[in-house]
Specification:
The structure holds 2 protein chains of 2 kinds.
Chain A: H1 8-12, H2 14-24, E1 30-31, H3 34-37, E2 54-56, H4 61-74, E3 77-81, E4 97-101, E5 108-112, E6 117-120, H5 126-133, E7 138-139, H6 152-158, H7 165-168, E8 175-181, E9 187-191, H8 202-206, E10 215-222, E11 224-225, E12 229-237, H9 240-252, E13 259-264, H10 265-275, E14 285-293, H11 295-311, E15 316-319, H12 323-334, H13 336-343, E16 346-349, H14 359-373, E17 377-382, E18 387-394, H15 399-418, H16 437-440, H17 443-456, H18 474-478
Parallel strand pairs in A: 2-4, 3-4
Antiparallel strand pairs in A: 1-2, 5-6, 6-10, 7-11, 8-9, 8-10, 12-14, 12-15, 13-14, 13-17, 16-18, 17-18
Helix pairs in contact in A: 10-13, 14-15
Chain B: E1 4-5, H1 10-23, E2 27-30, E3 46-49, E4 56-60, E5 65-69, H2 74-83, E6 86-87, H3 108-113, H4 121-124, E7 131-138, E8 143-147, H5 159-163, E9 171-179, E10 181-182, E11 186-193, H6 197-208, E12 214-220, H7 222-226, H8 231-234, E13 240-247, H9 249-269, E14 273-277, H10 279-290, E15 302-307, H11 313-321, E16 328-332, E17 337-342, H12 350-358, E18 363-368, H13 371-376, H14 385-398
Helix pairs in contact in B: 11-12
Classes of the chains: A alpha+beta, B alpha+beta.
Chain lengths: ~500, ~400
């Protein structure tokens, strides 16, 4: 993984940059010693580490605006960071860039039950929003597995999903408004407590923009009444195709479960050894299907799901009879990552997205690749929406294994695109998938995206080295070569 | 007389745009032209008619996605989905008659470009939430794509959101991939009669805050209710507030009972009554609400669409009514979307309408007015200078020479 070369001019000006930041954010809000910066050297893609130029932790919006304006005026790069839980290196520091930590923006500003929304600062955790509204029977729907730690600002930047996104959508479908600061220091508000922004949907563009377009300083999300019940059913199949057929049959029957997760045999064994959830060990594929809503609906649909599974050869059908049992059925799935961590020094979690109809084929080809690269792969995934999370097992202390792991991961993601899917379903491109963008997009597609970035950040100073494999200067991207000469469409009908 | 060009495929579309760029010409993009009177009038050198680039490319019911070309008629898409018991969950309104045209003349891509959404916007989102990906020709004469066909995809910027609601000012669409969902087995509507606007909004907030999964919440003041073709609504003799429940049979019945128990005392306290509509009557009523046919506006009346915090809906209308007593209003989205009719004026009362929103936030769009009025007043909500400048830079990043739909969004 190559990051852009460090700018010696910036490194030479470090003392002046630190002093300028101190003038904006006094006291302990600027961290420039190595020990103090160490906690910021990586995010959740921990195979890659880099100390930033300096860390700044503002606590007011005007400070954010002055910092960004300073960066634009002085040509200094800057990397925004929420809770640092990105799995794609979205908030990984850059050696010649300021790290802008937004953790001090951690207040819930307003809960408005009449309009079913919450207005919060970006450093509030995902779960913190639910905690603030659950006393009134509400919750915030998107639930990334890092929800206890990840910040809502980071969720907006990455358009985070979760196990319930099949029914309740991603962050983008649950967001009403944001306030953001542009690189020129201007503060812009998009949306509010009403539905749909006016003008171009820049709220939609900001969501999932991976910190490359602006810094989010306030977030308004929709909150939903909690479903009255939720029940889960555990379905074990002797073949992976049995499990995949069942997923397709459930959707085809017009049922949209709250969650529909699949684990392969290795993942089942890992999880069972780790938490003893009572998973059957004689299956090739395990499905956890969760239904939520009024009890009568859940009971009705869970019977239909169980019936569809039996027709497709399920050897295990276990319906949760209590909330306690439902949590136990989920326990194995939710601890799958740490469980894998028990059997391997390191693992890399990928995030490809594929059409549901290609699941079985993709899993089988992934196993062939596993042999080629000599590394194990374990699969847990959001089967309902075709979002795969292959875990490649390796030892990061062995440079050859790290290299093979990167190559294996790249092969899997190429396969996802080849079958009509995408490089990333919910983790973002970051640095992890940056160099694969050309697999999914043409140069024209990527140039168009970079031109959009130029509208927000004309000098490419915000979160550099992420998402785009090669950056082109905005002046160069803006050039328009007009073809002179003959009209190239003599045959097009005209009136 | 300007020439209208009608490319037959993506390459001809690209060539057309490249030619316009080359000659310094501008283009007005139309599909079925059913919403040509929506937005500011375009002044362009030529027409670009996309109705020749039509047809369903791929429909995979089990993947919940349909791919169609830009000129594909909405009725063709809806008929195909209905065969497999699926639907466009964002419930795109047919604004043809409201805009002075005919019904069922629109295209799916047109609905997406205007980011339309019907009553189900509340629970299922707008067109923006259902556009998974697209291919298009930008203002540089280049074919580009964004997004894809899978449900979850965060690869690169989400340009689908930008395209939805761009009114054809950023690019000329070629193909769109749209998410579809299973159609509900059963639909029921709980009607609350006799509530004043503010009380209706409070009742809708109570319903939306309950776990009964309401998929539509609208309020018809007495004069609008009277225009409904659904007897229960028209003959109520006063206002009607409608709450829709959809899903599998047993669930709908259970939720209806729960919602009725929750709201009956609230309505009774205001001297009102409750009633239920079954599937056929429900469909008829929600179609009337979707297509804004109950506003009863005279053909020369101005029509505005407002989006505001739901709890503020009645207060917003009251502020306008204080100056214009003859304003007509229908509340959808639990009060968050208001359709207004106002008597014709040269300035469309735009300052009055927007001042009514100033305190609570939101935006107003002039949906129907004579071309001269739409050319003279801000049809779309004016934006703060920093945001307006950013939006213009975004426009230029797709269409640097302003080839597409000049003037449409102001």
């Amino acid at each position: 993984m190559q990051m852009p070369p460090l700018d010696p001019g910036i490194l030479a000006r470090r003392a002046a940059i630190v002093a300028a930041l101190r003038a904006i954010v006094p006291g302990e809000g600027v961290i420039d010693d190595v020990e103090g910066m160490r906690p910021y050297e990586c995010d959740a893609l921990s195979a890659y580490r880099q100390l930033p130029l300096v860390v700044v932790l503002p606590e007011r919006i005007d400070q954010v605006a002055r910092i960004l304006r300073y960066c634009q005026d002085e040509g200094v790069k800057i990397v925004p960071r929420g809770a640092g839980t990105s799995l794609s290196g979205g908030s990984m520091p850059v050696g010649d860039a300021i790290l802008l930590g937004m953790a001090k923006f951690n207040r819930v500003l307003e809960i408005d039950f009449a309009n079913r929304c919450a207005r919060v600062q970006p450093g509030v955790t995902n779960l913190g929003i639910t905690r603030a509204v659950e006393h009134a029977g509400f919750y915030y729907a998107p639930d990334p597995s890092s929800q206890i730690a990840c910040s809502i600002g980071g969720n907006v930047a990455e358009n985070s999903g979760g196990v319930h996104s099949l029914k309740y959508g991603l962050t983008t479908n649950n967001l009403l408004g944001i306030e953001l600061v542009l690189m020129n220091g201007e503060i812009v508000r998009l949306g509010g407590k009403h539905l749909d922004t006016d003008g171009y949907d820049l709220l939609g563009v900001m969501t999932g923009s991976e910190g490359l377009l602006g810094v989010i300083t306030e977030v308004t999300v929709r909150i939903l009444p909690k479903p009255s019940t939720a029940r889960a059913v555990l379905l074990g199949f002797p073949t992976e195709s049995g499990g995949a057929d069942c997923v397709a049959a459930i959707i085809a029957a017009g049922i949209i479960p709250a969650g529909m997760e699949m684990m392969d045999k290795d993942a089942v064994h890992c999880a069972e050894a780790y938490v003893h959830a009572g998973y059957p060990l004689d299956v090739e594929a395990l499905l956890i299907v969760e239904l939520d809503g009024p009890p009568v609906e859940v009971d009705h649909l869970i019977e239909r799901v169980a019936g569809l599974a039996r027709e497709r050869g399920a050897t295990t059908v276990r319906v949760s009879a209590s909330e306690d049992e439902r949590m136990r059925l989920w326990a194995g799935r939710k601890s799958a990552f740490p469980a894998v961590g028990q059997i391997s020094p390191d693992y890399m979690c990928l995030d490809g997205s594929v059409p549901r109809s290609r699941l079985v084929e993709v899993l089988s080809r992934m196993r062939e690749m596993s042999k080629q690269h000599g590394l194990r792969v374990v699969n847990v995934f959001h089967a309902g929406d075709g979002n795969l999370h292959p875990l490649i097992l390796f030892d990061a202390n062995d440079p050859d294994q790290l290299r093979r792991c990167e190559e294996f991961g790249a092969d899997i993601l190429r396969l996802c695109v080849e079958v009509g899917g995408a490089l990333t379903g919910e983790h973002g491109v970051g640095i992890e998938k940056r160099d694969l963008m050309g697999v999914q997009f043409t140069d024209i597609d990527l140039d168009q995206q970079m031109r959009l970035k130029c509208a927000f950040d004309p000098d490419h100073l915000l979160n550099p080295g992420k998402v785009f494999p090669k950056l082109r200067r905005c002046a160069e991207l803006g050039q328009l070569v007009v073809r002179q000469g003959a009209i190239p469409f003599p045959d097009i009908p005209r009136f | 007389m300007t020439t209208t060009l009608k490319p037959r495929d993506r390459d001809e579309l690209r060539d057309t745009v490249a030619w316009a760029l080359n000659d310094g010409k501008t283009l007005e993009i139309v599909g079925a032209a059913s919403k040509r009177a929506l937005g500011r009038p375009v002044v362009a050198d030529h027409g670009l008619d996309l109705s020749g680039i039509a047809g369903v490319v791929e429909y995979q019911p089990e993947e919940l996605v349909i791919t169609v070309r830009a000129g594909t008629p909405m009725r063709e898409v809806e008929a195909l989905l209905a065969q497999r018991n699926q639907m466009l969950a964002f419930e795109p309104p047919d604004l043809g008659p409201l805009l002075g045209g005919v019904a069922e003349a629109s295209t799916l891509a047109g609905a997406v470009l205007c980011n339309l959404a019907g009553p189900r916007r509340l629970s299922a989102g707008a067109a923006r939430d259902h556009l998974l990906g697209f291919s298009a020709v930008n203002g540089r004469g280049e074919i580009f794509k964004s997004g894809g066909k899978v449900m979850k995809n965060v690869t690169g910027y989400d340009l689908s959101k930008l395209m939805a609601g761009s009114f054809g000012t950023l690019a000329a669409l070629d193909e769109i991939n749209v998410k579809v969902l299973p159609a509900p087995d059963k639909t029921r509507t709980l009607l609350l009669f006799g509530l004043a606007d503010a009380d209706a909004i409070a009742a809708m907030a109570l319903a939306m805050g309950s776990p009964h999964e309401v998929s539509g919440a609208a309020h018809l003041p007495a004069d609008a209710a009277r225009r409904s073709a659904v007897g229960y609504v028209a003959k109520a003799g006063g206002s009607a507030t409608a709450l829709r429940l959809e899903g599998v049979g047993p669930s709908v019945e259970a939720r209806l009972t729960g919602l009725r128990d929750l709201l009956t005392p609230v309505v009774a306290a205001k001297g009102g009554a409750v009633e239920e509509l079954h599937t056929m009557n429900s469909r008829a009523l929600w179609r009337e609400l979707r297509d804004v046919t109950l506003l009863g506006a005279a053909s020369d009346a101005l029509v505005w669409r407002l989006s505001c915090p739901p709890s503020e809906g009645a207060a917003v209308v009251a502020r306008i009514r204080a100056v214009r007593p003859d304003v007509g209003a229908i509340y959808d989205w639990a009060g968050g979307q208001i359709w207004l009719s106002l008597p014709p004026t040269a300035d469309a009362d735009h300052a009055l309408v927007r001042a009514a929103l100033a305190a609570c936030g939101g935006h107003a769009t002039l949906i129907r007015a004579p071309g001269a009025v739409r050319a003279a007043v801000p049809v779309f909500q004016p934006q703060a200078p920093a945001l307006a400048a950013l939006a213009w830079r975004v426009k230029e990043s797709f269409d640097p020479r302003g080839v597409f739909n000049p003037g449409r969004m102001g």
